[in-house]
Amino acid sequence: MQKLLASAAILGLGLIGSAAIAGCGIQSATAVASTITPSSHQTTSPSPSTTGSATGASAGTPITSTAPSSSAAPANPFPTIIGMAMAHVPSNLLQNPMAPTELPLAQSGSTSMYYDPTVTEEPVPSYSVQLSSPSASLASFGATSYSSDQQAADAAAINPYAQGPGGTTNGQEDLGSHITGTVVTYNGQATSAMTNQPWAALTWHEGRWLIDVTNYGSTTVPTAEAKQVVASLATHYLPPPQIRGALFVSLYKNPGASTASLEVDAQWEEGSTTYTVDAYNGAVNPLDTAIRMAITMTPYPG
Questions:
Q1: 258 — pLDDT class (breaks 50, 70, 90)
Q2: pTM, 2 dp
């Protein structure tokens, strides 16, 4: 259910050129108690370059941005829609909440974007914000707090799309940039049972990050997609986890579809907190979107 609360110009809509943060990508534990899920809210961007105004749901006067003087405090780096979504996250929920300063772009070309925040207070504190166009999910981000650094690191390594039993190692492939990927395949049955679907994957490590590129529903090794990931990570460095991070790139083809869909999950831990950024097929270039949003995850002021 989507409820229009506000019409707002999204500040800084789009993806930056080649920002890189040193480092070198979560499946959060699912909790059902004390869960708050507000209805979806919408903001609208007149154009990707807009830096203009935002009108609150109950405010009658537009809030217009102005150029700060040399003595003014640094400008808020977060797009308006991020601030609106994070307002639903209690300031005492997590010690170090973070949010991206970059937003996804819709494949449809729509400049209307909805946000849908979910907050879980017990037993595992967490928040997640879904970003969508009127017709498709674009991306999400969030964080989960655990009781120890190791629990957070273990959660970061969980593949949210893993299906069925483990596969069989079938050699290695040169992916360029001095990266060698291990080929893993599972010869399941092409039936409606998702737990028994065939799949093929290429996996490797870059620093503390596990990179996993999996083609679900087929034993065709996703070499081209893995090489694209290697090339992207050669110039865009993921946040540095203290123990472990994982980047899961998942391809799957729905029955009757002419092309495969792509979803990308970047998951990493800092102390006892795991952070996640997911990009979906509704976004322009989900791989690029997930990497850039993860790179720009920034501490959010409480």
A1: confident
A2: 0.77
